[in-house]
Amino acid sequence: MRRLISSVLVLLCFAYFSPPALADPIAIDFTARVTSTIDYGGFLGPVVNVGDIITGRYVYESTTPDTNHLSAVGDYRHNEVPFGITLDVNGLVFRTDPAAVDFLVELGDNHRSSGDFYLLRSYNNIFAVSVPSAEIRAVDNHILWYLQDFTGAAQNSPALPELPPMLAAWPIRNLQITSDNYGFVENGYFAINAEITSVTAAAPVPEPASLVLFGTGLAGLRAWRKRRG
Questions:
Q1: Within the chain, where are the H helices?
Q2: pTM, whole model, 2 decimals?
Q3: pLDDT tens-digit map of 40-61
Q4: 3-state secondary structure 17-44
Protein backbone atom coordinates (compact mmCIF):
# COMPACT_ATOMS: atom_id res chain seq x y z
CA MET A 1 0.00 0.00 0.00
CA ARG A 2 2.84 2.36 0.92
CA ARG A 3 4.55 1.63 -2.44
CA LEU A 4 1.29 2.46 -4.33
CA ILE A 5 0.88 5.77 -2.51
CA SER A 6 4.51 6.68 -3.23
CA SER A 7 4.05 5.92 -6.94
CA VAL A 8 1.00 8.17 -7.16
CA LEU A 9 2.84 10.98 -5.37
CA VAL A 10 5.73 10.75 -7.83
CA LEU A 11 3.39 11.07 -10.82
CA LEU A 12 1.65 14.04 -9.23
CA CYS A 13 5.00 15.75 -8.65
CA PHE A 14 6.00 15.33 -12.29
CA ALA A 15 2.64 16.70 -13.42
CA TYR A 16 2.90 19.68 -11.06
CA PHE A 17 6.43 20.72 -11.93
CA SER A 18 6.20 20.08 -15.68
CA PRO A 19 5.00 22.88 -18.03
CA PRO A 20 1.22 22.86 -18.47
CA ALA A 21 -0.10 21.33 -21.69
CA LEU A 22 -2.18 23.37 -24.07
CA ALA A 23 -5.90 22.76 -24.55
CA ASP A 24 -6.77 20.04 -27.02
CA PRO A 25 -7.09 21.24 -30.62
CA ILE A 26 -10.67 21.38 -31.88
CA ALA A 27 -11.44 19.29 -34.96
CA ILE A 28 -14.54 19.80 -37.11
CA ASP A 29 -15.66 17.32 -39.79
CA PHE A 30 -17.82 18.49 -42.67
CA THR A 31 -19.24 17.59 -46.05
CA ALA A 32 -19.91 19.73 -49.10
CA ARG A 33 -21.54 19.22 -52.49
CA VAL A 34 -19.82 20.40 -55.68
CA THR A 35 -21.98 23.07 -57.34
CA SER A 36 -19.70 24.09 -60.23
CA THR A 37 -16.18 23.79 -61.61
CA ILE A 38 -13.96 25.96 -63.80
CA ASP A 39 -11.27 23.91 -65.54
CA TYR A 40 -10.43 25.13 -69.04
CA GLY A 41 -7.08 23.32 -68.95
CA GLY A 42 -8.62 19.96 -68.07
CA PHE A 43 -6.50 19.51 -64.94
CA LEU A 44 -9.30 17.86 -62.97
CA GLY A 45 -10.16 15.53 -65.82
CA PRO A 46 -13.36 13.50 -65.38
CA VAL A 47 -12.79 13.01 -61.65
CA VAL A 48 -14.65 16.01 -60.19
CA ASN A 49 -18.21 16.73 -61.30
CA VAL A 50 -21.21 18.75 -60.16
CA GLY A 51 -23.02 16.88 -57.40
CA ASP A 52 -19.93 15.08 -56.09
CA ILE A 53 -19.40 15.04 -52.33
CA ILE A 54 -16.37 16.57 -50.64
CA THR A 55 -15.45 15.32 -47.19
CA GLY A 56 -13.19 17.40 -44.99
CA ARG A 57 -11.83 18.30 -41.60
CA TYR A 58 -10.35 21.47 -40.16
CA VAL A 59 -8.44 21.82 -36.90
CA TYR A 60 -7.83 24.94 -34.84
CA GLU A 61 -6.84 25.93 -31.30
CA SER A 62 -9.48 27.70 -29.21
CA THR A 63 -6.85 29.61 -27.23
CA THR A 64 -5.19 31.20 -30.28
CA PRO A 65 -4.87 34.98 -29.71
CA ASP A 66 -6.89 37.46 -31.77
CA THR A 67 -4.65 39.67 -33.94
CA ASN A 68 -7.38 41.93 -35.35
CA HIS A 69 -7.84 45.33 -33.68
CA LEU A 70 -11.52 45.62 -34.71
CA SER A 71 -14.03 44.69 -32.02
CA ALA A 72 -16.36 43.12 -34.60
CA VAL A 73 -13.70 40.87 -36.18
CA GLY A 74 -11.45 38.16 -34.79
CA ASP A 75 -8.39 36.92 -36.70
CA TYR A 76 -6.82 33.70 -35.41
CA ARG A 77 -3.74 32.59 -37.31
CA HIS A 78 -2.25 29.11 -36.91
CA ASN A 79 1.29 28.31 -38.05
CA GLU A 80 2.02 24.77 -36.89
CA VAL A 81 0.68 21.23 -37.09
CA PRO A 82 -1.87 19.77 -36.48
CA PHE A 83 -3.77 22.91 -37.52
CA GLY A 84 -5.23 23.41 -40.99
CA ILE A 85 -7.76 21.85 -43.33
CA THR A 86 -7.95 18.65 -45.40
CA LEU A 87 -10.40 17.94 -48.23
CA ASP A 88 -11.08 14.78 -50.24
CA VAL A 89 -13.18 14.61 -53.39
CA ASN A 90 -13.26 11.25 -55.16
CA GLY A 91 -9.77 10.41 -53.93
CA LEU A 92 -8.20 13.76 -54.80
CA VAL A 93 -6.80 15.28 -51.61
CA PHE A 94 -6.30 19.01 -51.06
CA ARG A 95 -4.75 19.96 -47.71
CA THR A 96 -2.72 22.39 -45.68
CA ASP A 97 1.01 21.85 -46.13
CA PRO A 98 2.21 20.51 -42.73
CA ALA A 99 5.71 21.86 -43.43
CA ALA A 100 4.48 25.44 -43.93
CA VAL A 101 1.17 25.88 -42.09
CA ASP A 102 -0.52 29.24 -42.70
CA PHE A 103 -4.13 28.75 -41.65
CA LEU A 104 -6.48 31.59 -40.74
CA VAL A 105 -9.78 31.43 -38.90
CA GLU A 106 -11.60 34.77 -39.18
CA LEU A 107 -14.90 35.51 -37.46
CA GLY A 108 -17.11 38.56 -37.82
CA ASP A 109 -20.02 39.64 -35.64
CA ASN A 110 -22.31 42.38 -36.98
CA HIS A 111 -19.59 43.86 -39.13
CA ARG A 112 -20.83 47.10 -40.69
CA SER A 113 -20.52 45.85 -44.29
CA SER A 114 -20.34 42.05 -44.01
CA GLY A 115 -22.71 41.13 -41.17
CA ASP A 116 -21.71 37.85 -39.54
CA PHE A 117 -19.11 35.62 -41.15
CA TYR A 118 -17.13 32.49 -40.35
CA LEU A 119 -14.14 32.23 -42.66
CA LEU A 120 -11.28 29.76 -43.05
CA ARG A 121 -8.29 30.29 -45.34
CA SER A 122 -5.38 27.95 -45.94
CA TYR A 123 -2.62 29.72 -47.86
CA ASN A 124 0.11 27.08 -48.22
CA ASN A 125 -1.32 23.82 -49.51
CA ILE A 126 -0.50 20.49 -51.09
CA PHE A 127 -2.91 19.60 -53.92
CA ALA A 128 -3.32 16.21 -55.58
CA VAL A 129 -3.54 18.14 -58.86
CA SER A 130 -2.60 21.74 -59.58
CA VAL A 131 -1.96 23.99 -62.55
CA PRO A 132 1.61 24.18 -63.94
CA SER A 133 3.92 26.73 -62.39
CA ALA A 134 5.74 29.49 -64.24
CA GLU A 135 9.40 30.32 -63.71
CA ILE A 136 8.58 33.83 -62.51
CA ARG A 137 5.50 33.00 -60.45
CA ALA A 138 4.71 30.16 -58.07
CA VAL A 139 1.31 28.51 -58.24
CA ASP A 140 -1.23 29.76 -55.70
CA ASN A 141 -3.10 26.74 -54.35
CA HIS A 142 -5.80 28.13 -52.08
CA ILE A 143 -8.60 26.77 -49.90
CA LEU A 144 -11.42 29.06 -48.79
CA TRP A 145 -14.44 28.24 -46.62
CA TYR A 146 -16.94 30.89 -45.68
CA LEU A 147 -20.29 31.10 -43.98
CA GLN A 148 -22.06 34.45 -44.10
CA ASP A 149 -25.22 36.08 -42.80
CA PHE A 150 -25.70 39.69 -43.83
CA THR A 151 -28.48 40.15 -41.23
CA GLY A 152 -25.98 39.66 -38.40
CA ALA A 153 -28.10 37.06 -36.61
CA ALA A 154 -25.94 33.94 -37.05
CA GLN A 155 -23.49 34.46 -34.19
CA ASN A 156 -23.06 36.70 -31.17
CA SER A 157 -19.30 37.07 -30.88
CA PRO A 158 -16.12 37.08 -32.98
CA ALA A 159 -14.43 34.85 -30.38
CA LEU A 160 -13.29 31.37 -31.37
CA PRO A 161 -16.04 28.83 -30.62
CA GLU A 162 -15.50 25.39 -29.16
CA LEU A 163 -18.45 23.88 -31.04
CA PRO A 164 -19.19 23.51 -34.76
CA PRO A 165 -21.19 26.29 -36.44
CA MET A 166 -24.95 25.78 -36.76
CA LEU A 167 -25.42 25.59 -40.52
CA ALA A 168 -29.12 26.43 -40.33
CA ALA A 169 -28.18 29.93 -39.12
CA TRP A 170 -26.04 30.68 -42.18
CA PRO A 171 -27.73 31.46 -45.52
CA ILE A 172 -24.38 31.43 -47.39
CA ARG A 173 -22.29 28.25 -46.97
CA ASN A 174 -19.50 28.16 -49.53
CA LEU A 175 -16.30 26.21 -50.04
CA GLN A 176 -13.79 26.90 -52.82
CA ILE A 177 -10.62 25.13 -53.94
CA THR A 178 -8.51 27.06 -56.47
CA SER A 179 -5.19 26.62 -58.25
CA ASP A 180 -3.93 29.70 -60.10
CA ASN A 181 -0.73 30.82 -61.82
CA TYR A 182 -2.18 34.24 -62.63
CA GLY A 183 -1.99 33.96 -66.38
CA PHE A 184 1.69 33.11 -66.68
CA VAL A 185 0.69 29.79 -68.27
CA GLU A 186 -2.29 29.48 -70.64
CA ASN A 187 -5.44 28.16 -68.95
CA GLY A 188 -3.49 28.07 -65.71
CA TYR A 189 -6.49 28.14 -63.39
CA PHE A 190 -9.08 25.81 -61.97
CA ALA A 191 -11.73 26.14 -59.29
CA ILE A 192 -14.00 23.73 -57.47
CA ASN A 193 -17.01 25.49 -55.93
CA ALA A 194 -19.16 23.72 -53.37
CA GLU A 195 -21.92 24.25 -50.84
CA ILE A 196 -21.24 23.08 -47.28
CA THR A 197 -23.94 20.58 -46.30
CA SER A 198 -23.00 19.32 -42.82
CA VAL A 199 -20.64 20.01 -39.92
CA THR A 200 -19.98 17.84 -36.87
CA ALA A 201 -17.52 17.80 -34.00
CA ALA A 202 -14.77 15.25 -34.56
CA ALA A 203 -12.91 13.20 -31.97
CA PRO A 204 -10.40 15.30 -29.99
CA VAL A 205 -6.95 15.67 -31.56
CA PRO A 206 -4.17 14.77 -29.08
CA GLU A 207 -1.97 17.73 -28.22
CA PRO A 208 1.75 16.81 -28.59
CA ALA A 209 2.58 18.61 -25.34
CA SER A 210 0.09 16.41 -23.46
CA LEU A 211 1.72 13.25 -24.76
CA VAL A 212 5.17 14.51 -23.84
CA LEU A 213 4.00 15.43 -20.35
CA PHE A 214 2.45 12.01 -19.72
CA GLY A 215 5.52 10.23 -21.10
CA THR A 216 7.80 12.32 -18.89
CA GLY A 217 5.80 11.35 -15.82
CA LEU A 218 5.94 7.64 -16.64
CA ALA A 219 9.67 7.80 -17.37
CA GLY A 220 10.25 9.52 -14.07
CA LEU A 221 8.21 6.90 -12.24
CA ARG A 222 10.21 4.07 -13.83
CA ALA A 223 13.49 5.76 -12.88
CA TRP A 224 12.29 6.27 -9.30
CA ARG A 225 11.24 2.63 -9.01
CA LYS A 226 14.61 1.51 -10.37
CA ARG A 227 16.43 3.53 -7.75
CA ARG A 228 14.14 2.15 -5.04
CA GLY A 229 14.76 -1.38 -6.26
A1: 2-17, 208-228
A2: 0.81
A3: 999 999 999 999 999 999 999 9
A4: HCCCCCCCCEEEEEEEEEEEEECCCCCC
